[in-house]
Amino acid sequence: MNDIINEILKLKKEKNAVILAHNYQVGEIQDIADFVGDSLGLSQQAAKTNADVIVFCGVHFMAETASIISPNKKILIPDTEAGCSLASTVNADQLREWKLQHPGAVVVSYVNTTAEVKAESDYCCTSSNAVKVVEAISREKRILFLPDKFLGQYVSVTTGREMEIWNGACHVHEKIGDVNFDEAQAQHPDAEFLIHPECGCSSACMLKSQLYFDCKNTHIFSTEGMIDYVKKSDADEFVVATEIGILHRLKKIKPAAAFYPLNEKSICEYMKMITLEKLYESLRYDKFEVKVPEEIARKAALPIQRMLEIV
Ligand code: 13P
Ligand code: SF4
């Protein structure tokens, strides 16, 4: 293990490369990365790095976003099969058709979309800034929000704004909603509940709190929002509703606290495709370069730029 780590560090220096990793990556990848964060933080890092090569330890749409933001850098992803079930729920043809049905509407696309879909969009957003992005759009305008229905519902409730919402979901987060949230609250009455807005359970909680249920100690955050919350919180028990890769980082931040996954089966197999061996191969042989065609990259850069200006 130490050999491969040393080789990766050596290659990284030789090639002036930076390793960016998402919060859901396996522990070894998080530990060797130069930066670990959520989709927004990773985009911001990709925009400001001076490195010549960015090795993206995450999923394909994240590497594409880095390539759009930094077209002159070499962007590598260690496994091209690392996709995203949510991004696959909508393609550019479907979006063009949807826009035709709602002329004049403003399109807000979650960052979990392909470059082609971003190129057809007005604004991009991530789970940490979706509310701010929607609030920056005139209330006169109709909004088409895609592709995540749970995030869309969360944004709609929070901003008090009706939107057209695409019927997409992430296969990992959608199933978190299957577990009994009330039971978990009864089991951990003193715990803080941290919920990603892509979860089916986030909507259940929102709807209940609107109607009759007290969702106390429940907070809806992006993955980095969870990290920031735990850093500041005095609590020593947390129930976490998102992909369980984040527990590695949370435990490092607060080793004395207890972290329970709301659903321990919440594993994104795409995120887990990146291994130390593949990261080594990627740096050694420049595998696999992600390059967005120029015309699409030019159009997709605009909604990303607008988002980065808002946050
Ligand atoms: P974050 O931006 O909150 O890290 O979410 C990315 C993602 O893919 C969630 O499944
Ligand atoms: Fe996509 Fe879901 Fe995996 Fe996030 S957890 S990368 S939304 S499939």
Question: What can you tell me about this protein's structure?
Answer:
- The protein has 15 helices and twelve strands.
- It is α/β, with parallel strands linked by helices and 311 residues long.
- It has three domains: 2-83 and 271-292, NadA-like (Rossmann fold, 3-Layer(aba) Sandwich), CATH 3.40.50; 87-169, 3-Layer(aba) Sandwich (Rossmann fold), CATH 3.40.50.10800; 172-261, 3-Layer(aba) Sandwich (Rossmann fold).
- α4 (60-69) links the parallel β3 (53-57) and β4.
- The longest helix is centred in the C-terminal third of the chain and has 17 residues, at 294-310.
- The N and C termini lie far apart (39 Å).
- The structure holds 1,3-dihydroxyacetonephosphate and iron/sulfur cluster.
Can you lay out the helices and strands and say which pair or pack?
Blueprint: H1 2-14, E1 17-22, H2 27-32, E2 35-37, H3 39-48, E3 53-57, H4 60-69, E4 74-76, H5 92-101, E5 106-110, H6 115-119, E6 123-125, H7 130-135, E7 143-146, H8 149-159, E8 164-165, H9 171-176, H10 181-187, E9 192-195, H11 200-211, E10 218-220, H12 223-232, E11 237-241, H13 246-253, E12 258-261, H14 276-285, H15 294-310
Parallel strand pairs: 1-2, 1-3, 3-4, 5-6, 5-7, 7-8, 9-10, 9-11, 11-12
Helix pairs in contact: 1-14, 3-4, 4-15, 8-11, 12-13
The structure holds 1,3-dihydroxyacetonephosphate and iron/sulfur cluster.
